[in-house]
Amino acid sequence: MSSLLVRDVTVGDRPGRAVHVADGRIGWLGDAAEAPPADRTLDGGGALLTPAFVDAHVHATATGLSLTGLALHGAGSLRAAVAQVADHAGPAPTGTVLGTGWDETGWPEGRGLTRHDLDAVVGERPAYLARVDVHSATVSTALLDRVPGITDLPGYSPDGRLRLDAHHAVRQAAYGSVPPGQRRAAQQATLAAAAALGIGSVHEMAGPEVSSAEDLAGLLALAAGAPGPRVVGYWGELSERGGLDVVRELGLAGAGGDLFCDGAFGSHTAALSTPYRDRPETAGNLRFDTGSLVEHLRACTRASLQAGFHCIGDAAVDQVLAAVAAVVEELGRDAVRVCRHRLEHVEMVSDAAIEQLRDWGMVASVQPAFDAAWGGASGMYAERLGVERAAGCNPLADFVDAGVAVALGSDAPVTPLDPWGGVHAAIDHTTPGSGLRPFDAFDAATHGGWVAARAEHPEGPLSVGAPADLALWATSETLSAVLAARARPTCRQLVVAGDLIGDPR
């Protein structure tokens, strides 16, 4: 049995501490002077040691393709975005052009990309450029031609700006064209980036409209084959379509994740109870009938499997909770609570819905960076919803105060892998009173991910018997000081299951 001693570290706000790790778990912690011997020693030199971060919502392949390819998040205009596409496509004149991150809401041209913009710079090559929320995209004519029947699907537009089912179909075609070597390199890039940021676990939110089962299996095999961040896999497909078979075959954590019950505010596809302010002809879209959600929840609950649902707008949240209520009535509250079903994003939610989440033991898997990017009186939320409705989005404090389990994630590549940034965004919410207390935010970004995956240690992540997933930071400050200063210390060393990941920095 291999052992590791991490000595002379500050744990929380207590300096001069040490943690002894045996067989991948914490075996002892206390004063450094009293530490037992170990096979290996990592001298912290007084640096801060914390639980490793958990990013509770990630798309590893798409994130890696963004990290290694075409990312349009910084494009400040339509002209700049087109120029970036041209610069990216020129050196490699074959294959599908893949990109993500463009956001037209602040562009001076007052419109987003069209297929004519893309055709002018990519010619006859297929191209897929996802909007920043990845719930709509602009594609080239060549890619449209590869998807039979695309013109008959909901969300199709002849200008190449696709939403809803048309977008899901074309995204499958685009990412299905990525060769295995490029896919593996992208996944490796994501895991390496996560490790460098002190992220010890990522929750991979896979599904047939996001990535294939083969893609997910490859990621799980990659993570299992070498020391690095853990990958907790989810598959978002209804039971009536065979989703539970994939969950069982791959040994996944749950039958959910990005099971898209609606879309996103930015693409006007999140399902609202009243119309969008800037497009009053639409209130978004619900993708499933409630009966299908009930059937899925019933199957998961009977099997004691965790279900999960992507739901952003209030109509989508209420639809999912109506399905949960039906299963509670049928199978009992305790049977539902033990499954700890998840809601992903859950951005627009009423007080009554929050109480239901608490009563039924559900998890709010949230992305504070969404509020940082799009919240506030002049942000995208206010443009889409109006200032009053926007101010009620992402009520993080209400979740915690009500006793709802909260886990923080990035939804990368929608927002970057940035755990400290997510913690600080959760604290500094754009709506006064909606932010988290500093230690609640840090707990949601670390322990919250274990709770969300039904894998937490009863005494917490820094206790005897807990998995030894730790991060050593290049700062001598206490955790309280780091949080107060909104600092972003560099990860000196990541430890996952007692293994030192990479070279110390």
TrEMBL record:
Q: Which residues form the Amidohydrolase domain?
A: 41-499
Extract the InterPro entries matched here.
Answer: Amidohydro_3, Metal-dep_hydrolase_composite, Metal_Hydrolase
Which Pfam family, giving just one, matches this sequence?
Answer: Amidohydro_3
Q: Which SUPFAM superfamilies match?
A: Composite domain of metallo-dependent hydrolases, Metallo-dependent hydrolases
Q: Per UniProt, what is one GO molecular function of this protein?
A: hydrolase activity, acting on carbon-nitrogen (but not peptide) bonds
Protein name stated in the entry: Amidohydrolase 3 domain-containing protein
